[in-house]
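Thread: quick sanity check before group meeting

JM: Hey all, I'm pulling together slides for Thursday and realized we never actually wrote out the predicted structure for the chain we discussed last week. Dropping the sequence here so it's in one place. If anyone has concerns about the input, flag it before I start.
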Amino acid sequence: MKILQVNSVYKKGSTGKIVYDIHQELLAQGIESIVCYGRGEEYNEKNVYKICGELYSKANHFLANLSGIMYGGCFFSTKKLKEIIKKEKPDIVHLQCINGYFINIYDIINWLKKNKIKTVVSLHAEFMYTANCGHALECENWKYGCGNCPRLKTEIGSYYFDKTAVSWQKMKEAFNEFDKNLIITSVSPWLMKRAKSSPILADKNHKVVLNGLDTNVFEIYNIENLKSKYTSNEKIIFHATPNFNDDKDHLKGGYYLIELAKILLEENVKFLIAGRFKENMKLPPNIILLGEIKDQIELAKYYSMADITLLTSKKETFSMVTAESLCCGTPVVGFNAGAPEQIALKEYSKFVDYGNVEELKKIVLDFFYKNFDREEISKEAKKKYGKDIMCRNYIEVYKKLIGMEKK
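JM (edit): ok, ran it. Output follows.
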């Protein structure tokens, strides 16, 4: 068996780490593995190809904003990918998260279909069935062909034209009659249900494969020294986010964390926030901004130190924060965001309606005084979110896809 993965990044970010973990596991099992990626630094590794230059990607991003078509262009990098596939002759091409302006998605899907190449498409976001936005939120235009996009500039990034209906039709045509050699995997049941509701992917073969992480990194740490740096006897709420700001409409919900911190000012609680942040925000004194934490062990220590991890996202297709926190033995509370309430360990997590800060406050205070067995939380989480489990599930998908032609 020979597998070729395609992703926007490699080793970096959640999907880049997932691709790396699958690649390493395949090699460890004696399975031939190739990775093609488009963005970030170039790695000098055997069977790992960077197929797109950074300037070329930026140029294609500009052209996409100009034309209103998000996933077209990229002629040369797409051609390079096809050449690698023809040279390597993999049994399966596994398309991971490919929305980084490095590949023509419509073209590569059509090409794989016409050449009868067995393909796995993993959904980490929604763009493969919306054909446009990564998070559709409350909008349901994607169920009917898009057009009249309510977030044209903020989500699509188009300077002038609403071409969302054109993009939708191009994606629909790409996937039309691509059935026998295709399996769609989703990283959560919530995401799979959404994909099955899409005219683009409704008639395909679907399966859920949860994301996995390194449970030798995300585990319980001794954090007495770290804890003494930030607190004497306060309760700690930890929040990890790519971007923390006070914009009420921001996808990650930082505004609501700030509101919760204000309400809990008299409750002997501190909020520690990991992630890039907007400058000059007016924050209550019980919020501490840690900045971006790139070291995964350091991040795991902050999870281990916290009494609770807080999730305030409007929508999540999985939530690595939830999985990481639980593996470190720390319960999770937050807003209903689609996937997290489905993939979390229900005994050690609780979610309320988005934006309901009063209800959020109640469950936070309730969780502070529950006598959770952190070792048990970590043990159960590792059974569910370990990268070995994820890799095993993907290998089962590959074997199923290869066996489909024999039936």
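AS: nice. The mean pLDDT is 95. The radius of gyration is 22 Å.
JM: adding both to the slides.
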